[in-house]
Amino acid sequence: MQAYDVIIIGAGHNGLVCAAYLLKAGYSVLLLEKRPVPGGAATTEAVIPELPDFRFNLCAIDHEFIHLGPVVEELELGKFGLEYLFCDPVVFCPQPDGRYFLAHRSLEKTCVEIERYSLRDAQKYAEFTQYWQRIVSALIPMFNAPPNSILAVARNYDLGKIKDLFASVGSTHKALEFVRTMLTSAEDLLNEWFDSEVVKAPLARLAAEMGVPPSQKNLAIGAMMMSMRHHPGMARPKGGTGALVQALVNLVKSLGGEILTDQRVKQVLVDDGQAVGVRVANGTEYRAMKGVISNIDAQRLFLQLMDTADVDTADPNLRERLERRIINNNETILKIDLAMSEPLRFERYHHRDEYLIGSILIADSVRQVEIAHVDPMMGRIPDADPSMYIVQPTVLDPSMAPAGNHTLWIEFFAPYQIAGLEGTGLYGTGWTDELKNQVADRVIDKLAEYAPNVKTATIARRVESPAELGERLGAYKGNYYHIDMTLEQMVFFRPLPELASYKTPIKGLFLTGAGTHPGGSISGMPGRNCARVFLQSQSPVAQAFDNIRAFLGS
Ligand SMILES: Cc1cc2nc3c(=O)[nH]c(=O)nc-3n(C[C@H](O)[C@H](O)[C@H](O)COP(=O)(O)OP(=O)(O)OC[C@H]3O[C@@H](n4cnc5c(N)ncnc54)[C@H](O)[C@@H]3O)c2cc1C
């Protein structure tokens, strides 16, 4: 049996980041990935066989969170081929009445755009953005440390972040205001600050990228999404999101790490309460001398990849808590990728090519965005009046398609399980090829109301249903954040309080990935934080503390 210090289940970007830190610390690492390529929800692939020169970001495309942490610099990913291209403008959102929201990277330029509709909203937009930028800055130290390690969080504060912390919660009034803001919904908050729908609708769409409707109480924090596009900015790796993964693969391999693809882990091997290895689908077993780290969510790990007895012995309540406590609101994504002979043209909006650089949001109203999220929760497909998030990546980075040609990335929220179609279609979800194509037609029809040439310029298209996306990623019910990003599942609660430190009740078994703090998106933070916890657990002092804790029964 081949043996390594650490085995990582899944080579998503977080698994790769984690591996890189462990390899740098001198540990031998094997990553086992079920797909033919590493990267998980961060790949760039040529998926239309007859068009091998068109390369598509199958999932993530716009990177914001990774710029809030040190992963790119610490791992010197630039030396391994990563180059970020920053977007400017960052958002274009055309409205049915011919108006449009155009956000530049510069806050001042964006306010000038908003002044065309409302002087008050332009002023408020500047205040709102600065308010959220201070909150984000104050939260960065928490994102980049294990949530329950007060020392590690405190060490991440520099003078600027301390100032932002005080500016956000430094007096009773500010602290109460902050708490009140956190308790409210993105919709309520936007109504409190702004008058015009042309400002509110795109901000609501971005806030709801947390995977919940804008009306969801306790999740106003989604409103920070727009502020980050101004600072530190929104970027895409040159060559696609897969170029980030390729840089990580290059680094991992250069440090002697091994990545085996087409290796679906079926079983975590446990001996006397300690994770000692894994078995893959073809029966091969790999031994882990110091630990097994899971890049997949806790539900799949404990409920599908482990012996019931092993889990129950370690914690008799864990399986029930994972089954019943973790929230999955049934929302996932129907993904559409187009190969195009020319870029979109927004003629009714005095087309300018710069509209196509950032994200293009079809968000006609806050209500439309609300339905885009409420319908999937109820098992309905919100295709009567589709809202969508579009990117034409080849405008910023023409290397991703043959000269003069383009690709289009469309994200449309949809239910995993369609109500009334239980037990039919793919994996019993109700999704069929016919249905996914019908929905894609509706989405394209809606887009054509804004950019009519989308139809004539399309050379080929690929549509991936929620059921197919879930199977490809190995994510529970196709959840793009592994588990929902709701407040009671964040920070100390992600995925459950007893698992929130990246450690588990099974000795030597650790969790990383989107289902751990600080959550989904391209950030590498769960991977880095988990590596730090693993490395600390290897020190003799930490072992002594663990033994004392075990002795005291805590
Ligand atoms: C359509 C879509 C669009 C998105 N857009 C954005 C965006 O623009 N910006 C952004 O920041 N985020 C975006 N996200 C979210 C982001 O992509 C993810 O949160 C992030 O990539 C998760 O990374 P991860 O490494 O934690 O997990 P994953 O990428 O899910 O990696 C888990 C890995 O484990 C593998 N695996 C699963 N089961 C097994 C098994 N049994 N054995 C071995 N391997 C296994 C999987 O194949 C996968 O490679 C998007 C997600 C989706 C689905």
Briefly characterize the structure.
With 554 residues, the chain is an alpha/beta fold.
Short descriptors:
7-stranded mixed sheet, FAD/NAD(P)-binding domain, 39% helix, 554 residues, 3 domains, globular
Class by SSE composition: alpha/beta
Based on CA atoms alone, the radius of gyration comes out at 23 Å
The top-level CATH class of the largest domain is Alpha Beta
Ions, cofactors and other ligands present here are:
flavin-adenine dinucleotide
What is the number of beta strands?
18
Question: Uncertain segments of ≥5 residues (pLDDT<50)?
Answer: none
Global morphology = globular
Largest sheet: 7 strands, mixed
What's the name of the CATH homologous superfamily of the largest domain? Answer: FAD/NAD(P)-binding domain
Query: What's the number of structural domains?
Result: 3
Q: Give the helix tally.
A: 21
What does the average pLDDT come to? 95
CATH topology of the largest domain: FAD/NAD(P)-binding domain
Distance between the termini: 35 Å
Write the layout of secondary structure elements.
Layout: E1 2-9, H1 13-24, E2 29-32, E3 44-45, E4 56-57, H2 71-74, E5 84-86, E6 91-94, E7 100-103, H3 107-115, H4 119-143, H5 150-155, H6 159-169, H7 172-183, H8 186-193, H9 197-207, H10 224-233, E8 235-237, H11 242-254, E9 258-260, E10 265-271, E11 274-280, E12 285-294, H12 298-304, H13 308-314, H14 318-325, E13 331-340, E14 359-362, H15 366-377, E15 388-391, H16 393-396, E16 406-415, H17 433-450, H18 453-456, E17 458-464, H19 466-473, E18 509-511, H20 525-537, H21 540-552
Parallel strand pairs: 1-2, 1-12, 2-9, 6-14, 12-18
Antiparallel strand pairs: 3-4, 5-8, 6-7, 10-11, 11-12, 13-16, 13-17, 14-15, 15-16
The protein binds flavin-adenine dinucleotide (FAD).
